[in-house]
Amino acid sequence: MPSSVPSFAELLGQCQRSAVHLELRDSYAATDRFEAWKRGERINWEDRESWWHPYDQLIADTVSRGVVIRRARVISEPVSDYIRWEHYVTHANVTAGEGVRWLPRRLATAIALPGNDFWLFDDALLRVHHFSGDGAVVEDEITADAEAVKLCSTAFEAVWERAIPHHQYQV
Prior knowledge:
- There is one protein chain.
- Helix content is 36%, strand content 23%.
- It is an alpha/beta fold.
- Strand 4 and strand 5 form a beta hairpin.
- Pfam families: DUF6879 (PF21806).
- This is DUF6879 family protein.
C-alpha cells in the first residue's frame, strides 16, 4: 500500500521560505557510515565526489532557490559516540548550505520541547518523525495542526537562539 506521506524531497520542493529541523535524540539507528566511522574510517573531505549524496544536492538546490534551511540538535553531554559522528559528518550539511547549531540539553530546561523530532516547512507544515526505542524511524506524520505548528516553531526558535553554531561547538 503506498504511503500518503509526501517524500522529503516533495516537501522541500514545495517550500518557499524556510525549513527547520529539530533533533532531540542522542542516538539513532546505526548506519553503515556510522559503523565505518567507529572502525576509524574517515571521509576525505577534499574528494567531494566520494561523500556528496543526493540529500546534499537537494539541500544545495533548495538553498539556491532562496530557502533558508536550519538544523538544531539538543544533545546530552558528555556526547554519545553517535553525536560525535554526527558532528563529524555535519561538514556535509554545512557545505550543502544548512545552518547547524548544537544545544547542550542542560541549557534546554526552560524550553517547552515537543516529544518528537520534526521538520517544519514555511512555518506551516510539520513532518514529525516517530522512532522506535533503538532510533529507527517507525513512521513520519504530516500535520498542519496550528497548535502543533506553534509549539514546534516556538521550540525551534528558542533552541536556535541558545544553541552554539556548528563550527564553534567542540565535541
